[in-house]
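User: Sequence recovery, please. Input:
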């Protein structure tokens, strides 16, 4: 009915109260191409899909779409998943994060801020602050896995879900475009080989991949 639809209407909130920290060096307007991919994100935000009220579990998932750290596949790896989660009683929150352009700290700063905002607004958004996970696909899976291994007390996800993620920066296995767009051309940084950053406090994580993946080697 229209009342419940209105209650569950998705909404967008700015990720940062003022100018986001760090500068990717990108300028110009954000654009959407014919595939629905978003380019040139410089003003990050959260797209919140509230859980259906009668089914609300209190859980929430921060969702990082992929796109090789070059653009965001915001529909099939973002909004569509958030919508499905919301219909199943889980608040889906799409992270519209900034494209790093070789400034590796920028996407992680946005992911951490996304976790903070979800928890700060948990009462208003009817979310249990202790049931907030992170999920990502492809390069978004790398960003999610970075948050799962580089968190602080306020930003630790309670669980992770990684779809065909980029995990490693090892040149034999990494997704080269993602690595280059994140770190810069010819830069090596083992800190973002997230398989090397696992610890006893790493949240429980579900990995989903396909052995015939031609883009991101399943060994990730």
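Assistant: Recovered sequence (220 residues):
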């Amino acid at each position: 009915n229209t009342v419940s639809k209105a209650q569950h209407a998705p909404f967008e909130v700015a990720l940062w109260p003022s100018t986001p920290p760090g500068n990717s060096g990108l300028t110009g307007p954000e654009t959407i191409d014919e595939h629905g991919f978003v380019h040139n994100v410089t003003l990050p935000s959260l797209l919140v899909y509230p859980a259906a009220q009668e089914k609300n579990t209190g859980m929430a998932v921060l969702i990082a779409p992929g796109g090789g750290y070059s653009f965001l596949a915001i529909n099939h790896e973002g909004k569509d998943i958030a919508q499905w989660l919301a219909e199943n009683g889980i608040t889906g929150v799409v992270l519209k994060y900034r494209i790093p352009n070789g400034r590796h700290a920028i996407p992680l700063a946005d992911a951490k801020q996304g976790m903070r905002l979800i928890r700060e607004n948990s009462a208003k958004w009817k979310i249990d602050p202790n049931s907030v996970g992170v999920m990502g696909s492809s390069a978004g899976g790398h960003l999610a896995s970075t948050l799962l291994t580089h968190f602080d007390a306020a930003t630790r996800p309670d669980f992770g879900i990684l779809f065909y993620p980029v995990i490693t920066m090892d040149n034999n296995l990494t997704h080269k475009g993602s690595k280059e767009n994140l770190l810069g051309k010819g830069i090596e940084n083992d800190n973002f080989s997230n398989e090397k950053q696992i610890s006893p406090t790493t949240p429980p994580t579900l990995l989903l991949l396909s052995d015939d993946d031609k883009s991101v080697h399943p060994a990730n």
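The longest helix spans residues 105-120.
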